[in-house]
Amino acid sequence: MTNLHLKKVLFIVFIVLLVLGLLIGGFFAFNTFIYNEKQGDDVPPQTTDAELLEVRIGESASALGVTLTPLDMLEDSRCPPNANCVTAGTVRLRATLESGLGTADQVFELDTPIATEAEEVTLVRVEPPLLKGSTIEASEYVFYFEVRKR
Length: 150
What we know:
Elements: H1 3-42, E1 50-55, E2 61-63, E3 66-76, E4 91-99, E5 102-109, E6 114-115, E7 119-127, E8 142-149
Antiparallel strand pairs: 1-8, 2-3, 3-4, 4-5, 6-7, 7-8
């Protein structure tokens, strides 16, 4: 065998091995993808056992065995939509939380959940929006709580 002929044979062997490697690697990658997709189908969709409560200061609202009664607005430092703020601010509200385990006054902060043994309660929205240079009377506030089973 000549040196040139040996180089051609080695080149062809290299190409065949490269193609085989790509085919085998692609086969395993494809099967892994299909397997993972099938695994995702076996997972049941998450149910959202949650309800939204709308309530004002001094009023009560109930859902999923929880009763909420807002008592006092402690802080409303939300950034008004017509202002430039460094932080978004927050709302802090004192409310009575009554569930199957009893009654307690809690301080709710916007988007911060409070957990009981069976539920999770989150103050998710406050209306009306705070406007720069205006004040909101306590009776004007509407609070939205999400009550979710744990």
